[in-house]
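ingest -> validate -> predict -> emit
validate: passed (alphabet ok, no gaps, 146 aa)
predict: started
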Amino acid sequence: MGDTSELDRVIEEYHGADRAIIRGDSGPYKTLYSHRPDATLANPFGGVWRGWDEISPALDRAASAYREGELTTEQVAMHATQDLAYLVEIERITAKLPGSEDVAEVALRTTSILRREEGGWKVSHRHADPRVAMQPAESAPTILRS
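emit:
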């Protein structure tokens, strides 16, 4: 792909947006997320959101679920072309949840797709779920075992 410095900078901003959202601030994510109608978000709270009109409030809801959060990120894989990149990462979060002073810990496996749009790189898809550890085959839904 050649020079990756611009993409590297955007990925650092993206990780900063992750840190901000677990501190209750969705603003940095909204700056980095694509506003195109085909952008998607599948966050660990369930649902799949498509288009900016659905993604924006979903980001606000996610930010309202955390406060005083800390984040570490482990990159599992990354690949980039001139106009498209994907990241597979494990995010480890510690944060306070609404109505509690206890610190909760969660690990998420995430897949993020970034694309070059007018104005630079934007997140066009993010999927995050808590299924980080291997699961026994018996835990798969019946339809998958048939």
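The domain at 5-131 is CATH 3.10.450.50 (Nuclear Transport Factor 2; Chain: A,).
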